[in-house]
Amino acid sequence: MVNINEFKNIDLRVGRIIEIDDLEGARGPIYRAKIDLGELGIRNIAMGLKNHYTKEQLLNRLVIVVANLEPKKIADFFSEGMLLAAEDGEIVSLLGPDKDMKPGSRVG
Questions:
Q1: Where would you tag: which of 20, 54, 63, 92 has the fewest CB atoms within 10 A of its CB?
Q2: pLDDT at residue 27 above 90?
């Protein structure tokens, strides 16, 4: 179990995918994206969604981002966050707001 104080340490923000491309050199089918987090700036994030979404489906989409995750090197790319998604076997669905929100809006 995670207590409420531990949960409060996770900084969840609304982000907008503003650029997306293939991540060359990765071991799996991965995209690299630039995500606008408003006041937090633009973040580079690796996304293992290539088997589930096309670039066109992702571009300009609003998503939920873990904004304070430690950066991780994937191939020659530093990923600076993580997108939230639900998974049910073969089905993967990105989580995002159901209304137009400004990038950087807090989730909580």
A1: 54
A2: no
Buried residues in 27-43 as b, exposed as e (16+ CB within 10 A): eeebbbbebbbeebebb
31: its two tokens: 């995209």
CA distance 21 to 39: 24
Element (H, E) at 74: strand 72-74
The DSSP call for residue 58 is H
Q: What is the pLDDT of residues 8-19, one digit of tens each?
A: 999 999 999 999
Q: What angle do CA 20, 21, 27 make, to 5 degrees?
A: 125
Residue type at 99 in one-letter notation = K
pTM reported for the whole predicted model:
0.93
- Give the type of residue at 82: M
Which domains does the chain possess? Answer: 4-102 (2.40.50.140)
Paired with 74 in beta bridges are 77
Alpha carbon 86 to chain centroid, angstroms: 12
